[in-house]
């Protein structure tokens, strides 16, 4: 028996069903389905979507339209993030029709001259209109014309962050480069990502360019070549510009616009309360939002470049590593020889009694890789106040991570104390047998004997503190 052909009504029903099926599957296909995302304002500033624009596009053109206004992204004295910041003939221009909403220019930028003490010296560093100006969009149109050359990338392609720095001569010192300049730069930039993880994962794109407009290429490296290691390991693709490059841009006689830029100025940071309190330029940036793991992207990149697993030194269950950085052959700021020997003997007692790893080292006798590998594994770091303690930057912060710093009695400086606490670790200072820790630290003082070679230390008291720090942690684990 033959099957009768479908009626017109049946064909219509099948057709409607087919259309509905196609619509349902096409609208829910993974390739076309776009869920709605609710993102906090600060997160929307982190990264812009990838663009397929011409990557040779080098000019932001506004034609008859208003000049795009500068947007203030984040600010603490001396550390300021902008979008659409302009430079023209060596002057920095903030374009805004609402200047009352912006911080005073003296908290962002200075003349970039050598820092001296005294009111007259402070006033001489204040910026003039030749250094920085806040101008309206109308003024900008008259000054810039119809467009500006783009610095760093294609417009809206990626969020790229050059760092423009008014740098003091002290950056040729490992501590001042890594624990002040690098510390403050990353603390400011990382304020845009409050979800950095313990393993250093961040949504922030790496900075593309580091610009110094007051020093040349010969005046940023330190004698131990640690500055070079830190910058090349932190961001392998980072390029650097110096005062000659800045002058090249001036000589072109055309305006430039930063897609995004972080202005760093030591003199401006000195206005902040945190600088007044701790004498650390990076301290000003800690008034910005952040999280406990803000430094981990830098720390992990640096230790991994040295061949060390980023997880090294973490946790509280592994065998602790105690590292004493000796200055006894340095010629300045050294322990009384007998006290040094007693300290070493007491540390070796801990090694023999508990099986803890103890290292007594002179950092200048180790290669850069060896220095970073050792500090990255270290649980407790100790030594006389000095550059060697900069290695604390590569420790893995845990509840038992501790820095112990020896001072001549009555002397104190916040350098390593503040840096330790800023990383979430514990710092103890010692005056011979007397120890102190935050919040009970003394006022800064460079007393007679501070730089001398007769600094006393009670080795037994130090060993007792080490035992207490590690013993308390072991009790917590139990």
Describe the structure.
By secondary structure, the chain is α/β, with parallel strands linked by helices. 31% of the residues lie in helices and 17% in strands. The chain contains 14 helices and 16 strands. The strands form two sheets. Strands 1, 2, 3, 4, 5, 6, 7, 8, 9 and 10 form a ten-stranded mixed β-sheet that branches. Strands 12-11-13-14-15-16 form a six-stranded mixed β-sheet, with helices on both faces. β4, α3 and β5 (132-135) form a beta-alpha-beta unit. α6 packs across α10 (296-305) and α11 (337-354) packs parallel to α14 (459-477). The longest helix has 20 residues, at 8-27. The chain starts with 7 loop residues before the first helix and ends with a helix. Mean pLDDT is 86; it is low at 16-44, 48-54, 153-160 and 473-478.
Keywords:
single chain, 478 residues, alpha/beta, 10-stranded mixed β-sheet, 6-stranded mixed β-sheet, 14 helices, 31% helix, elongated, disordered C terminus
């Amino acid at each position: 028996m033959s099957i009768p052909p479908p009626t017109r009504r049946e064909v219509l029903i099948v057709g409607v069903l087919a259309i509905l099926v196609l619509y349902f599957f096409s609208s829910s296909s993974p390739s076309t389905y776009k869920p709605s995302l609710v993102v906090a304002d600060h997160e929307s500033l982190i990264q812009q979507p990838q663009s397929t624009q011409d990557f040779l596009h080098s000019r932001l053109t506004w034609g008859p339209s208003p000049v795009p206004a500068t947007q203030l992204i984040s600010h603490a004295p001396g550390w300021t993030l902008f979008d659409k910041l302009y430079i023209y003939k060596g002057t920095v221009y903030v374009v805004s029709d609402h200047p009352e909403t912006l911080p005073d220019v003296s908290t962002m930028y200075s003349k970039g001259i050598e820092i001296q003490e005294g009111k007259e010296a402070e006033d001489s560093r204040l910026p003039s209109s030749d250094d920085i100006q806040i101008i309206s969009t109308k003024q900008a149109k008259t000054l810039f014309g119809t467009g500006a050359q783009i610095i760093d990338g294609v417009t809206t392609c990626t969020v790229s962050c050059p760092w423009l720095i008014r740098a003091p001569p002290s950056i040729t010192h490992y501590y001042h480069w890594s624990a002040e300049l690098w510390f403050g730069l990353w603390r400011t930039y990382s304020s845009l990502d409050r979800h950095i993880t313990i393993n250093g994962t961040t949504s922030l794109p790496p900075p593309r360019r580091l610009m110094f407009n007051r020093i040349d290429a010969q005046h940023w490296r330190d004698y131990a070549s640690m500055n070079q290691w830190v910058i090349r390991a932190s961001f392998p693709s980072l390029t650097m510009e110096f005062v000659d490059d800045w002058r090249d841009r001036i000589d072109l006689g055309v305006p430039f616009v930063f897609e995004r830029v972080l202005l760093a100025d030591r003199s401006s940071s000195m206005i902040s309360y945190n600088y007044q309190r701790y004498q650390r330029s990076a301290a000003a940036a800690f008034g910005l939002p952040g999280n406990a793991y803000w430094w981990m992207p830098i720390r992990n990149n640096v230790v991994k470049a040295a061949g060390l697993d980023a997880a090294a030194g973490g946790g509280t269950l592994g065998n602790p590593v105690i590292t004493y950085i000796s200055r006894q052959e340095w010629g300045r700021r050294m322990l009384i020889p007998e006290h040094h020997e007693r300290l070493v003997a007491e540390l070796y007692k801990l090694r023999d009694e508990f099986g803890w790893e103890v290292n007594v080292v002179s950092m200048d006798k180790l290669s850069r890789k060896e220095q970073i590998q050792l500090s990255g594994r270290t649980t407790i770091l100790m030594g006389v106040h000095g550059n060697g303690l900069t290695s604390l930057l590569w420790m893995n912060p845990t509840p038992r991570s501790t820095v112990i710093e020896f001072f001549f009695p009555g002397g104190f400086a916040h350098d390593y104390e503040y840096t330790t606490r800023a990383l979430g670790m514990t710092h103890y200072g010692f005056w011979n047998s007397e120890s102190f820790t935050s919040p009970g630290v003394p006022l800064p003082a460079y007393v007679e004997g501070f730089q001398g070679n007769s600094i006393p230390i009670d080795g037994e008291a130090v060993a007792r503190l080490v035992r207490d720090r590690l013993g308390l942690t072991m009790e917590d684990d139990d």
